[in-house]
Design brief:
Rossmann fold; globular
């Protein structure tokens, strides 16, 4: 009979290692430039062998495209370090209704993830209508989506963001694209992207980590920080994006940490909420 291992000598549970979920826009990049300190932070993550994923609500880009964009800016992490709202949608559908069908208004990132999940894209009596960021959004497709929802298709969208950043300024994002369909049908979409805790759950599942050991780093109180709090993670707000200290104080919930940028974060030294001594 094998000898029992004393509790104090049990093998370390790797799910309790620190891990990091990191927003991209306003945290790592701003437009086509790196935010100061972001490369150094990623280097520290890699040097410390910390698990991490870049989280983005933008469903248009594939992980390969996102990795290529970062690599061109000097950060090379590999395709497997990205988790998008499109991936959250496919995870949700595999959980809810494997082998389902969908009418899709969305870009390459969304279409590729649905294909990987064996979800049939069709206009004929689909189970779902799914909307994400796209460069092909026209009246005909809005009308078709409206009819299909009225005929019984369930309504899903990749994320609630009203705008997305570009070099020339904000442009309509998924939350804006669903508005005409929602107003006509009276049906609100189920958003899978941040701040939905489901996206946080599947991202953590991909890393194989526990929420108590996971840090959510973002620049938005209404998506990154609230999503992290509701998922039981330790939250870090960076002031390099859309949120200032003054704006952050107006929210009823507050992050565990506030930094000027990710360059100030030492992944080896930072403590999860459960280990902090106030």
């Amino acid at each position: 009979m094998a000898e029992a291992i004393p509790a104090g000598h049990a093998m370390k549970n790797r799910s309790y290692d620190k891990a990091f979920l990191i927003d991209m826009d306003g945290v790592i990049t701003k437009g086509m430039s790196l935010i100061p300190g972001s490369k150094e932070f990623v280097d520290r993550l890699k040097k410390g062998n910390h698990k991490f994923l870049f989280l983005t609500n933008n469903s248009y880009y594939t992980p390969q495209m996102l990795n290529r964009n970062l690599s061109n800016l000097g950060i090379d992490v590999g395709d497997d370090h990205f988790y998008t709202s499109a991936m959250a949608v496919s995870s949700f559908l595999l959980y809810q209704k494997p082998g389902c069908s969908a009418y899709v208004i969305g870009g390459r990132g969304l279409l590729e993830e649905l294909e990987k999940a064996n979800i049939t894209v069709t206009e004929k009596k689909p189970d779902y209508v799914i909307v994400g960021e796209t460069s092909e959004y026209d009246y005909k497709r809005i009308v078709e989506a409206t009819h299909l929802i009225q005929e019984g298709a369930r309504f899903i969208a990749t994320n609630p963001d009203i705008t997305g950043p570009t070099e020339r300024g904000p442009v309509p994002a998924c939350g804006a694209l669903v508005a005409p369909i929602e107003k006509v049908t009276g049906v609100s979409p189920y958003f899978l992207g941040k701040p939905n805790p489901a996206m946080m759950y599947w991202a953590r599942k991909k890393l194989g980590v526990h929420s108590a050991s996971c840090f959510m780093i973002g620049d938005r109180m209404d998506t990154d920080i609230i999503g992290g709090i509701e998922s039981g993670m330790t939250t870090c707000l960076v002031l390099s994006g859309v949120t200032s200290n003054k704006i952050a104080l107006r929210f009823p919930y507050q992050p565990d940490y506030i930094f000027q940028n990710v360059g100030e974060i030492d992944p080896d030294a930072i403590l999860p909420r459960r280990d902090r001594v106030e």
